[in-house]
Write a structure and sequence with these properties.
This protein has about 725 residues and is mainly alpha-helical. The chain is about 70% helix and about 0% strand. The protein has 41 helices and no strands. The longest helix is centred in the last third of the chain and has 21 residues. The radius of gyration is 31 Å and the shape is globular.
Length: about 725
């Protein structure tokens, strides 16, 4: 027996806490729980045993086994000083579950005192406030919520304050049945109902408000507008329509216009058109807005003569209204997308001339500038310079720099060209035009040229990109402590708490770029490269403006992962495709999520449509094709690589056009290719009228360059 016990203990020691915890977390049953208990018993003196007890306490809280949870958490506490706040919070949950409300306040003290700051503060406030309410101490709940107002979401805080205010009145013996008492509670409920109608607390507030005086119409109007702003167009339209008889004056105008806008935003275009054309608003701003949404309905319904007449009415009646600016852009974009640039250009010019201070005028100015460049580059030189001067931080600054360099090259002004190329490369190191600029600087004439001082001085004075020191990827002591805490939680099988710890640290500790690596690495370990990419994008949003050598290689490989590499390279080799270009396309399409489904029903890694997949499978001899096969990475890669190569062959090896076809369809691309005589592929890309497709092509080509630098040498790719 002793020998058997010794063997059992040895076997437990050989197993890691992480493996045992993972099994219990995924399948919490008597067998896996017993394994964790045995592990904790075998490691009574060390931290791993305490982590096993922490996991037991967390699961037992979830299963409402509060007595067991308290026992295990109290035993773990002394061995887990780094996670004292977690032990405290889980213990307080158990105390509350046992209705020992007076004990939760003392139990939660380590949460408030935690260094670093605990991500559990919000949960602790909610738990303590609820304990106060359940324990007959509404004043304590009010004081606690007011003290921690910044730690709570506003609707949650308002609901607690409302309930506590009612509790105060009830304890004072006041009667709310007549709907006249407790104005504080009513005010809190109304705030939730009006200001946060899409919150989960709104239904509680709505139920409570039947006990109080009716909400005034202006507040209900505000609620309707909040519903619409939050995307609940159906409910917004319904509630605003019911409110109409109670409104007058400007509020009536606003409500009527927003009813029509809600129908338009819900894409009920015919109903929106009929409603908006049925009245006129007396208030000038409301009438300008009505005309704008009417114009948008006319555009969607292809009532173009009416659309143009409405645009003219806006110009005559409300020349400086923001709604006129929106209408100019909408109509200009319509004509540009329908291959009528001569009609679109005057609208864009009016946009930036009539609204020079509006941020949207930068886009209009660029569209006019670009049209001039396509006609005669040298003649557009002054407009490019004007764009850089007027809009140095616009999204169009990088093409303005690049094409200014191309003009200088056409004049054999190599120093000026180099100054422009260096500027775009330095300001936007991982963007499309920076890649093109670096290629230009490798040409013989520019390789030995020095940047023209006058041009460099002009560009330096523009402050194209706000000057800031590079982010450090060396963790501070605080960040190291945060990461260590997250690691302990992860080892304990509490991966959700581990991620929450890191997300909180990214928010408050001052080094989100470092935490991003940890979060992305956790996602990558779970075979979720798409989540890893999103963590990098969220917590290091300026990463594309960072030189590659300014961050660890691990950071970039998490941001630009290469899963399924063997299959990817195999199928690219079969189609004579650059595997880094295909990887770049997949990153843009699905972020390497094999189960991704788009709004258009494209599926899998390369986002192949089922109908396209069926056609391609016949050509490739794949038998019994089913749409579900698109979720199989190997099949999806085989089809996606074949499709991209097919598009490239049909477009004579024009990779920019092939990528545009992959995104927008070949018929559109044929029209765009025929629209002008492009002097270089970049001109075609910049001329794509669909913003999404233009950004897509630039992003894929940019991604491909990063992939080449990270994973291998640049491969020979056919270029037009």
């Amino acid at each position: 027996m002793a020998a058997a016990a010794g063997l059992c203990a040895a076997a437990l020691s050989a197993q890691s806490i992480a493996a045992i915890a993972d099994r219990y977390r995924k399948t919490p049953n008597a067998v896996t729980r017993a394994a964790v208990l045995r592990y904790a018993e075998a490691h009574r003196a060390d931290k791993d045993g305490a982590l096993a007890l922490l996991l037991l306490g967390a699961i037992e809280d979830d299963q409402r086994q509060f007595g067991d949870a308290l026992t295990h958490l109290k035993t773990a506490a002394k061995r887990l000083p780094e996670l004292a706040d977690y032990v405290a919070y889980l213990s307080a949950v158990a105390e509350s579950g046992l209705r020992q409300f007076n004990d939760t306040e003392a139990a939660l003290q380590p949460v408030w005192q935690s260094k670093p700051a605990s991500p559990l503060v919000t949960k602790a406030v909610l738990l303590q406030a609820e304990s106060y309410l359940q324990g007959g101490n509404p004043a304590g709940a009010i004081a606690l919520v007011q003290q921690h107002a910044s730690d709570l979401a506003a609707p949650a805080a308002e609901l607690l304050l409302a309930r506590a205010s009612e509790g105060l009145n009830n304890s004072a013996g006041l009667n709310n049945s007549a709907g006249l008492n407790n104005s504080d509670a009513a005010a809190h409920y109304r705030t939730i109902y009006v200001e946060y109608p899409l919150s989960k607390e709104a239904s509680d507030a709505e139920a409570a408000l039947v006990r109080y005086p009716a909400i005034p119409p202006d507040a209900l109007l505000a609620r309707g507008l909040k519903l619409e702003a939050g995307g609940d167009y159906t409910r917004a339209g319904k509630e605003l329509t019911e409110l109409i008889p109670r409104l007058s004056g400007e509020n009536l105008d606003v409500a009527r216009v927003r009813i029509g806008a809600a129908a338009y935003l819900a894409r009920d275009n015919q109903a929106a058109y009929k409603y908006l054309i049925s009245f006129q608003a007396a208030a000038p701003d409301a009438e300008a807005e009505r005309l704008y949404y009417l114009l948008e309905c006319q555009r969607r319904l292809n009532r173009l003569d009416e659309m143009n007449a409405t645009l003219e009415k806006l110009a005559q009646s409300y020349p400086q209204s923001h709604w006129r600016l929106e209408a100019l852009v909408a109509v200009g974009n319509y004509y540009a997308a329908h291959d009528q640039p001569d009609t679109a250009q005057p609208l864009y010019r009016t946009c930036f001339e009539a609204f020079p201070g509006d941020p949207e005028s930068a886009v209009c100015h660029w569209k006019v500038t670009w049209s001039a460049y396509l006609r005669e580059p040298v003649q557009a030189e002054a407009m490019l310079r004007e764009h850089l001067t007027r809009y140095p931080t616009s999204d169009q600054a990088s093409p303005a720099l690049y094409y200014s360099g191309r003009i200088a090259e056409s004049k054999s002004d190599w120093p000026t060209a180099r100054a422009y190329y260096e500027a775009v490369s330095n300001a936007y190191p991982n963007y499309y035009y920076a890649i093109l600029a670096r290629e230009r600087m490798e040409t013989p004439s520019l390789l030995t040229a020095s940047a023209a001082p006058a041009t460099a001085q002009f560009l330096s004075a523009l402050h194209i990109v706000a000057s800031r020191p590079p982010d450090s990827f060396e963790p501070t002591p605080l960040t190291r402590q945060r990461i260590a805490r997250a690691h302990l939680l992860d080892v304990a099988g509490l991966d959700d708490l581990s991620e929450a710890e890191l997300r909180f640290g990214a928010k408050v500790d001052g080094q989100p770029q470092v935490i991003a690596i940890e979060l992305a690495d956790l996602a990558s370990q779970r075979d979720a490269p798409d989540q890893a990419i999103r963590y990098i994008k969220h917590y290091a949003p300026g990463y594309l403006s960072m030189p590659l050598d300014s961050a660890p290689e691990k950071f970039w490989r998490l941001a630009f992962p290469l899963p399924y590499r063997k299959s990817l390279e195999e199928y690219c080799r079969a189609q004579m495709l650059d595997p880094y270009l295909m990887a770049a396309l997949i990153r843009q399409e699905s972020e390497f999520n094999p189960n991704a489904i788009s709004r258009a029903n494209a599926r899998g890694l390369a986002q192949v449509m089922p109908a396209t997949g069926r056609q391609l499978s016949r050509k490739l001899g794949i038998p019994r094709f089913r749409a579900a096969m698109l979720f199989t990475p190997d099949t999806n890669l085989r089809l996606g690589t074949f499709y991209l190569k097919q598009l490239s062959d049909e477009l004579q090896g024009k990779w920019e056009a092939a990528l545009a076809s992959y995104n927008a369809g070949k018929s559109h691309v044929n029209t765009w290719l025929a629209a002008a005589n492009y002097r270089e592929p970049a001109e075609f890309v910049e001329s794509i009228p669909f913003n999404e497709t233009r950004a897509y092509v630039q992003s894929v080509l940019r991604n491909a360059e990063v992939y080449r630098k990270l994973y291998g040498r640049k491969l020979a790719v056919v270029k037009n």
